[in-house]
Design goal:
7 helices, 16 strands, 26% strand, alpha+beta, 5-stranded mixed beta sheet
C-alpha cells in the first residue's frame, strides 16, 4: 500500500478509518466464533460445481459477518467465497473491501476434524492491510498486518522463528502437478511436511513461525487475503508463482488459483533456487 503521496492529515484520517474497521472486524468475527464451535461436525453438506464442499454454516457465517460490518461501512465492498457462481464479477469500487472465507477447511469442519477456521481480510486500494484468522484447533483469534504486528487473542504474539524444531517443518498443499513436484523434491527429502487441508491455517502457522514456510499451489484469493496481511505483520513476503492477485480489482468465485510460497528468508531463498 502506497501512502507517500498522502499529506500528514490524510494519513491520520486513513489510520483512523483502518483502525475503526479493525475494531469492527474483531467484534464481528468473535460473534461468529461461537456459531462456528456450536456447529462444528454437526452439519450436513452439499457439493458445489467445482467439487468443493459447502455447508449452511459457510453461508450463515458469511452473511452474518457482512451484515454486521455493513451497518457501519455500507460503502465498502464485500467479497465471499460463497457468492453465487451465477453472479457477474463484483467490481471493487470502494477504497476498502472485505474478503472472507467463512470456513476454510470445510471438509475438516463437516467431518469433525478440528483443522479449520475463519478467514477475514481488510483490503485498502486492493491490498490486504489487516487480517483475522480464527484457528478452531486452538480456539484462538490471530490478527495483524503491516505496521500492526501479529497478535493472538489481542496479545502481542512471540514468534517461533528461533525455534530449531520449527525451522525444520514446512506446510504444503497437495496435489502438486508432477513437473513442479519434481523441482521441489530436494526440500521434500530434507524437511518435515505438514498438509492440513486448510490453506488459511498453513499461512497463519507460517506467520507464527511454527512452520519455516509454506508452499500452496491450490490457494484462491479468499484463502490467502488474511494470511498475506499476517505474513507482512512479521516481515515475511508472499512470492506468487504466477501473477499476484493484488491489487484485487474484481471478485468472483471463479477467480483462478494464486499459487505462492512464503516464510523465512532462508526458506524463500531455497524455493527460489529450486524453481530457477
Amino acid at each position: 500500500m502506497k501512502k507517500k503521496s498522502l499529506s500528514r492529515q490524510a494519513k491520520l484520517k486513513l489510520d483512523v478509518e483502518i483502525r475503526h474497521r479493525i475494531n469492527a472486524g474483531r467484534v464481528a468475527i468473535k460473534d461468529q466464533m461461537v456459531f462456528f464451535r456450536r456447529h462444528f461436525g454437526q452439519v450436513s453438506s452439499d457439493w458445489k460445481a467445482d467439487a468443493s464442499r459447502v455447508t449452511f454454516a459457510d453461508i450463515a457465517i458469511s452473511e452474518n459477518l457482512f451484515a454486521s460490518l455493513n451497518k457501519d461501512f455500507s460503502d465498502d465492498d464485500y467479497c465471499s467465497e460463497e457468492m453465487s457462481s451465477k453472479d457477474v464479477p463484483l467490481e471493487l469500487k470502494g477504497d476498502f473491501a472485505w474478503v472472507i472465507d467463512p470456513i476454510d477447511g470445510t471438509n475438516n469442519f463437516a467431518l469433525g476434524f478440528p483443522l479449520c477456521g475463519i478467514s477475514l481480510a481488510l483490503l485498502y486500494n486492493g491490498f490486504p492491510v489487516y487480517g483475522f484468522v480464527y484457528d478452531f484447533s486452538v480456539n484462538s483469534l490471530f490478527e495483524g498486518g503491516p505496521d500492526f504486528g501479529l497478535m493472538k487473542d489481542q496479545q502481542k504474539y512471540p514468534s517461533m522463528k528461533e525455534d530449531r524444531e520449527a525451522q525444520q517443518i514446512i506446510g504444503v498443499q497437495f496435489p502438486i502437478e508432477p513437473n513442479l513436484f519434481q523441482k521441489l523434491t530436494p526440500i521434500f527429502s530434507e524437511m518435515k511436511i505438514r498438509s492440513l487441508g486448510s490453506s488459511t491455517l498453513l499461512g497463519s502457522l507460517s506467520a507464527q513461525g511454527y512452520l519455516a514456510g509454506v508452499i500452496d499451489v491450490r490457494a484462491k484469493v479468499w484463502d490467502i487475503a488474511a494470511t498475506h496481511a499476517l505474513a507482512e505483520a512479521v516481515g515475511n513476503k508472499f512470492h506468487f508463482l504466477d501473477e499476484s492477485p493484488f491489487p484485487l480489482k474484481e471478485f468472483h468465485p471463479s477467480l483462478p488459483k494464486c499459487p505462492y510460497y512464503s516464510g523465512s528468508k532462508a526458506f524463500c531463498r531455497t524455493i527460489e533456487s529450486l524453481l530457477a
